[in-house]
Amino acid sequence: MNIVVCIKQVPDTPNIRIDRERMTIIRDGVESIINPLDRIALEAALDLKQKEGGKISVLTMGPSQSEEALREAMAAGADEAILLTDPHFAGADTLATSKVIGRAISRMDPFPDLILCGKQTIDSDTGHVGPQLAEELNWPQVCGVTEIHVEMNALVVKQVSDGFQNTYRVSFPALLTVSQGLNVPRHIPLGDLEQAFSNGRVIRWGLKDLNLRPEEVGFSGSATTVVRLYRPPQKRKGEVVSGSSQTLAEHLIAKLVSLSILDEDEAE
Amino acid sequence: MKTKQNRDWEGVWVFGDYRNYFQNRVTLQLIAKGNQLARNLGVDLTVLVLGSQIHQYAMEYTAHGADVVMVVDHPNLKNYQVETYVRVVSKLVESFRPEIFLAGATAFGREFFPRLAKRLNTGLSADCVSLEIEAERRLLIQTTPAFGGELLADIITPEYRPQMATVHPDVFEERIHDHEATARILYPEVEIEAEERVQLIRSKPDQSRKGGLEEAEIVVVGGKGLGSKENFQMLFELARLLGGDVGATRPVILSGWTEESRLLGQTGKSVKPKLLITAGTSGAVQYTTGIQGAETIIAINRDPHAPIFKMADLGLVGDVKTVLSLLLENLKKRL
Amino acid sequence: MLQYSRLILMLKCPESLVSAHHNYLVNQMLTPGFLLGDPDSREGFYFLADVVPVGQSEPRVYARLYDAQGAFVLEIEPKEIVENPLGCVHQSFPGGYRIAFPSGESLLSVQTESFANGFLTRMQGKLYDQEGKLRIEPSYDAIQIHGEVGLWLKEPFRKR
Questions:
Q1: H-helix or E-strand spanning residue B51
Q2: ipTM of the complex as predicted
Q3: Predicted structure pTM score
Q4: Which of B58, B182, B188 sits opposite C11 (nearest CB)?
Q5: Which domains, ranges and CATH numbers included, belong to chain B?
């Protein structure tokens, strides 16, 4: 089975800084990780490869530094890594992103049987790329999968959706987005990471390699535009208290009383 | 699709997601908001209803403020299925050309609407928490959360139509049921091709949330800052005394201090309890997305600069283990 | 409001009015009420499915019906048969009623489904006018009207 896992490198920091000119977040110099749900997708691919054999390709669209995420994926066990990178790709919404990734997958040889990705990312949170990529390729999709089983010529998958647990049979080739609960990704040994960073080969494709025009990709190929990026008004009081542990405990108790979780008059 | 003549596109549409109807109110909330947007633009609000024997929902949407109800009633539409629905709805959009199309951010909405937007080659924003009209250019200003809600983005779709958005439940308020209401009802004759490459084998109510972490009124969460598995155990005692449940961050799970089912955050559960006490957690975004819906958050951490304090109603800077021990002592005396 | 001139609809699109409270299912569409013929005339076919006001839940059907040869059969009002030369019977059952010939054969059935906040009435019957022309016939789980509908009703035609 030839599997493509789409991953995204996302910032790993709670301290986000905003680039007000470009209306995006500042990624330079910021610690990055593989989007957690994409890591789960990769783990699912590794499980399937173990059972069915085949090849795993990891793919990402991003700036040059996204290569780190691909190498981490190779250290985990992916066979091949493809970085879709080009100045023209920047500023893409999901419409343009799915166009680029779809075109890249179309030129893969051998053509994949299955695409796996995380249901959504922790930065943009839309969850759109999976379904839009499936549409770009004209493949069936199931989103938010919590179980994957391989049958003769199809996949049987489970999904929890709006209070229902659904079981589907999907024909190949198919795209699945994965949800938490599918698996717990294995730890990547440090040695494997070092190997991947020194030896692994990452294929790079840009605009010309994908035979795309500038107006189809990136900012130009996007239908939506971010006009403002800002912090929501602080809705929490944010009272921060220091002091002895006794003082802190008293504050805590007082708060519980004020919330009517504890009664007032109990003796200390 | 990309359009030079935005004036060719007119009308506000809402997709009628009527599954779990009486609990799931998001379509009704969207009808109320959609109505307001439609008045702003001087157009009708149309609610689109697909299914089989769906007369009741056409009438409910009428009662809740639809100007027009558009119905496609056919046995092949009985189950909500992404590909079939995308085919049918895209034909309707291409024929009727609404300028705005909204859907609730239910699981189905978030699976169906992006594929539909791609089929229509137009823009879609996800899980909006605010919608406004910029009247001059007839633009929908779509406000969506990013970074688990740490940031908000205002988005527009200037040159493509329809302007599509999925909307977070409980952001807008529905109108009260009006028994006297009437609406126009349209029955477009559209071909139903129901070839599905995704076959539903079985569907049953999901029981996994019942009685679990997501239903607890009080949740106490522990992070790596607790120091050890033994210290983490204190939380179980605390939860028992307060009548709540225990959650954990991923580093705690990875260290084997407790089981995966207690994981909170982007790859775990989301909780909205009345009270959440989070101890020894620094406040990484992957974690905080799972707790930001809590009514009151109390955070305990030894690091005064820990990001968790930015989202707490009460922050206590000190030794987590000692504070918790003192708290437990006090509670045991009272209860 | 939609500008009718601006669109060339690629799809055929039958249209009706829908009420939040009570509708009849006719020509596969919901409608609060409809009228064929002239109920105030002394003779000749008419069929009135009148609008049901909020607060009431029972359908309001008035009709003067003939057979396939054009002979008069009966005249009905919501709860009873008011002119009955053939001795037809009005049979009630849970959720509706039926008008039947003495032979037992059904002439017209009227059934109302209750929802949480509203009602839907489905009728079935093969109904002819004084010239023996078929004016109403069964279609799926309800009825199809032949030819022009006299009037789609938004307000009650007959005030109670």
A1: strand B45-51
A2: 0.92
A3: 0.88
A4: B188
A5: 6-186 (3.40.50.620), 213-334 (3.40.50.1220)
